[in-house]
Amino acid sequence: MNRAFSDPSIDGILALRGGYGAHRILPLLDWDMIAAHPKYFGGYSDITALHIAINQRCHFMTYHTIMPASNYFTSIDAYSMEFLKQALFGTLYGPLQNPPHLPLKTISGGAVTAPLCGGNLSVLTASLGTPFQLDTRGKILFLEDVHEPHSRIDTMLTQLRNAGLLDQCAGILLGAFTDGPPVPAEETIPLEEIMQDLLPTDHPILSGLTCGHILPSMALPMGAALFMDADRQTLEILKDR
């Protein structure tokens, strides 16, 4: 990554896949050099650790996008590919819209304009207590995850709440929480109930964003200014930040 950012012949970096381990390289990266050579950077899942650090330490946008070697996908649909192209070619602004058959849902009403932050819930929770901890103050927090049981999602959201990150943010945008292990209904709390219990209802909150470990999946410019109207269930990326 240090070579890729410092090499002027490289215009951008797109992660091949996620997995785990991005937190391991954070202390090895030359943040001053990266800040001096801003360029396109994209990926998702474990790449959340790098999005957070680049946004906060280098102060330029990165892109939560699909990746070419993700184990979750066998082919890419036109919707997801169009969003990747918009991210790659600098046209990812204006209204963000789910596919028509997948509506957003309001958990808590209100409207806010703020920078977008966040990503994979388990990865950003692992940043707590480190020099690379996510700063949610005055920002819209995006969350998604995969393969996590409801009990783990409950635990991680509780940790974010107890650390103050949920109260400090300006709004919350929930993406896909997919492929959790099956648990008998009598042994778990429904995910919607967990969200209602733990998320601050004095903030605008939307759920059901088509983004995460799913297809179709939109792209998101992390660090960009986002207008979110939870009452009207609309989102818009503002071109100038």
Distance between the termini: 26 Å
Tally of separate helices: 9
**Biggest sheet record:** 8 strands, mixed
Task: Give me the secondary-structure category.
Answer: alpha/beta
Taken as a percent bin, the fraction of beta residues is 15-25%
Q: What gyration radius follows from the Cα positions, in whole Å?
A: 17 Å
Low-confidence parts lasting 5 or more residues at pLDDT below 50? none
SSE series: HEHHEHEHEEEHEHHEHEEEE
Q: What's the β-strand tally?
A: 12
Large-scale geometry: globular
Q: How are the strands of the biggest sheet laid out side by side?
A: 4-12-11-6-7-8-9-5
Mean of residue pLDDT values? 94
Helix fraction, binned, reads: 25-40%
Question: Which tags fit this structure?
Answer:
single chain, 241 residues, alpha/beta, four-stranded mixed beta sheet, 9 helices, 12 strands, globular
Outline of the structure:
The chain has 241 residues and is an alpha/beta fold. The chain is built from nine helices and twelve strands.
Structural commentary:
The chain has 241 residues and is of the alpha/beta class. It has nine helices and twelve strands. The strands form two sheets. It has an eight-stranded mixed beta sheet with strand order 4-12-11-6-7-8-9-5. The two termini are 26 Å apart.
Topology:
Elements: H1 2-6, E1 12-14, H2 22-25, H3 31-36, E2 40-43, H4 48-58, E3 62-64, H5 78-88, E4 94-96, E5 105-108, E6 111-120, H6 121-125, E7 140-146, H7 150-162, H8 165-168, E8 171-178, H9 191-198, E9 205-207, E10 220-222, E11 225-229, E12 234-237
Parallel strand pairs: 1-2, 2-3, 6-7, 7-8, 8-9
Antiparallel strand pairs: 3-10, 4-12, 5-9, 6-11, 11-12
Helix pairs in contact: 7-9
